[in-house]
Amino acid sequence: MWLQRFLAATRGVRAPLKQAILGRYRRSGAVLFSDTTLRDGEQMPGATLDPEDKLEIALALEGLGVHSLDAGFPASSESDRAAIRLMVGRVKGPILTALCRTLTADIDAADEALSGLSPRKRGVSLFVGTSPLHREHKLRKSRTELLELIEQTVDYATRKFEIVAFSPEDASRTEPEFLTEVYQVAIGAGATTVGFPDTVGLCTPEKARGFIRHIQDSVANLDRALLAVHFHNDLGLAVANSLACIEEGVQVVQCTVNGIGERAGNACLEEVALALALHQDQYGRAGSIDLSRLRAVSQLVAERTGCPVAPNKPISGRTIFATEAGIHQDGMLKHPDMYLPFRPELVGAEGVEFVLGRHSGRRAVAHRLAALGLSADDPTVERILEAIKSLPKGTVVEEPQLRQLVAQESREPTDSA
Question: Angle formed by the axes of helices 326-334 and 362-371, to 10°?
């Protein structure tokens, strides 16, 4: 991973040289995927994971090619600490990070949970609310008090971790000028990554761009850290917001598999990764995600969390590569790309499914009969199609029923052919 190489190469070197090397990596255009399925995703009601489940998903995410894993919140529970300890030594590719409040005790808990890992393989992610709502009603702290807290705890974290991220919770409802101060203080104290979290999913792509441009233009020491984004999906715009920020040059995008998470969830990893890959002409930036594993990882997360994927969910939904409409079936039998934005094989799906139902046409019926080794001459196809269209609304004709229809039409036993 290039961030790990950067940290190794710059240990002990002068700040100007470190900034020059970091600048070169920033100009490389790499998009780093940080996955938070195991922490933020698990906060979805009913999605609780056992430590063994988390390890299995973490290993799958490693195979997928994510750059870092938000492994958990050690100060919150023994279960989170146990899950992180299971990952240590087993998950070897991604950087493992632990979430912490701006409390030294949280940082100590993260240090203990991640003990045994190479300094270049572990990190800590600090957060504190910065919006007026958080300052006045939750934290009861002034701007000055918050800045002092951020400086002290980030500095404390750098004594235990080489990789230190800081995010101002509810950044999208924080005054832009105060955000500038927050980032400058965090980076000055040693943060290697600063994040922009849209905690309540309020942003639109245009406003997300505006925030990123403001940060890039106003944070004087931003060249000393990576810039990350974290979007929630309350308006259904988390993926669009993430892509808009990638286009603006952010280096890290945080997502969850299947978009799971609190309320409406988070930016969906598989959707961001595929959109980035399919639109290289627009983004011109490379990601490290193995697209052929997307479907399998999606199914694994759905099974282990007990949160099923919607049938029409992009990329991993059951009906994404299924078609019943006669016009679409005819077109796709002539050329598979006729009504597909990408081939199923690209994301690890098996192939196109031609569903037989009341909307189907002759060509799809003939294709299905021939595939089953059944008679597909024109008269037979016409009779079977008429029989299918007379079935009750919503009926999907599977193989046994299709064979039965053929047998009835030809007066043969149902196990013939």
Answer: 60
pTM: 0.88
Which residues does 238 contact at the CB level (< 8 Å), separation at least 6?
Answer: 198, 201, 231, 232, 259, 265, 266, 267, 268
- Using CA atoms, how far apart are residues 369 and 378, in angstroms rounded to an integer? 11
The set of residues, in sequence order, having a beta carbon less than 8 Å from that of 314 and lying 6+ positions away, is: 268, 270, 271, 320
- Tokens 């990596």 appear where? 25
Q: What is the pLDDT of residues 246-302, one digit of tens each?
A: 999 999 999 999 999 999 999 999 999 999 999 999 999 989 999 999 999 999 999
List Cα–Cα distances, 222 to 22, 72, 184, in angstroms. 11, 27, 7
234's tokens: 């309350």
Q: Where are the beta strands (DSSP E) in 116-162?
A: 122-129
Residue 197: which residues within 8 A CB-CB, separation 6 or more?
Answer: 127, 167, 168, 169, 170, 171, 172, 229, 230, 231
Number of Cβ atoms within 10 Å of the Cβ of 16: 8
Residue 378 to residue 382: CA distance in whole angstroms: 6
Distance CA 282, CA 315 (A): 20
- Tokens describing residue 263: 């309320």
β-pair partners for 189? none
